[in-house]
Amino acid sequence: MIRVLVADDEPLIRAGIRMILTSADDIDVVAEARDGREAVEIARGTAVDVALLDIQMPVMDGLTALAEMGRAAPRVRVLILTTFGERDNVLRALGHGSAGFLLKDSAPQELIHAVRAAAAGNAYLSPAATRHVVDTLASPAATVRGEEARRRLAGLTTREREVLALLGEGLSNADAGARLHMSEATVKTYVSRILTKLDCDNRVQAALLARDAGLEPSAG
């Protein structure tokens, strides 16, 4: 079973997330938290695999809790629940090792898929969230980020760039494999190489790097 902690200051939101997740036979919501501080304490003392953290919470916000959890309970994979209100929030979450982002209006099946992906050690960024991140990160600094991103991508092979482009679109390993006519296992191997070459901690960072560099999937 995948053991999940849900942290949100609104009881109805927590109840809704619990209902969705427990409809899956491999997920169990083992704890709930009303604020970031409580979430960190629960993660420290409870067997939790994945934590869903809202950004806007009292006492301690979700981003601060993410950083604290990385030190207090590094085994826990964290998904941030957000509406991507501010560019700095996205960058801070990535810097603290978030396993991905989930929009609060995501479909129930997407929430379940994100939790499973995080528990399996993968990062999750839905296509909708990917597009939102790109829009959010649009700024005068984009030119500088683009130049740096293209420099980092220079050492990738053609195939690695094709795989990375699909990560930038938010595709899973299985979907990327279908697009490129490769097995899911082969795509996973490519992703591992890409993360190593780009010095990225997770797929989300690699996806954003691809978008910064303007990398687009090849036609067909």
UniProtKB/TrEMBL annotation:
<keyword id="KW-0805">Transcription regulation</keyword>
<keyword id="KW-0597">Phosphoprotein</keyword>
<dbReference type="InterPro" id="IPR016032">
    <property type="entry name" value="Sig_transdc_resp-reg_C-effctor"/>
</dbReference>
<dbReference type="InterPro" id="IPR000792">
    <property type="entry name" value="Tscrpt_reg_LuxR_C"/>
</dbReference>
<feature type="domain" description="HTH luxR-type">
    <location>
        <begin position="149"/>
        <end position="214"/>
    </location>
</feature>
<dbReference type="InterPro" id="IPR011006">
    <property type="entry name" value="CheY-like_superfamily"/>
</dbReference>
<dbReference type="InterPro" id="IPR058245">
    <property type="entry name" value="NreC/VraR/RcsB-like_REC"/>
</dbReference>
<feature type="modified residue" description="4-aspartylphosphate">
    <location>
        <position position="54"/>
    </location>
</feature>
<feature type="domain" description="Response regulatory">
    <location>
        <begin position="3"/>
        <end position="119"/>
    </location>
</feature>
<dbReference type="InterPro" id="IPR039420">
    <property type="entry name" value="WalR-like"/>
</dbReference>
<keyword id="KW-0804">Transcription</keyword>
<dbReference type="GO" id="GO:0003677">
    <property type="term" value="F:DNA binding"/>
</dbReference>
<dbReference type="GO" id="GO:0006355">
    <property type="term" value="P:regulation of DNA-templated transcription"/>
</dbReference>
<dbReference type="GO" id="GO:0000160">
    <property type="term" value="P:phosphorelay signal transduction system"/>
</dbReference>
<keyword id="KW-0238">DNA-binding</keyword>
<dbReference type="Pfam" id="PF00196">
    <property type="entry name" value="GerE"/>
</dbReference>
<protein>
    <submittedName>
        <fullName>DNA-binding NarL/FixJ family response regulator</fullName>
    </submittedName>
</protein>
<dbReference type="InterPro" id="IPR001789">
    <property type="entry name" value="Sig_transdc_resp-reg_receiver"/>
</dbReference>
<dbReference type="Pfam" id="PF00072">
    <property type="entry name" value="Response_reg"/>
</dbReference>
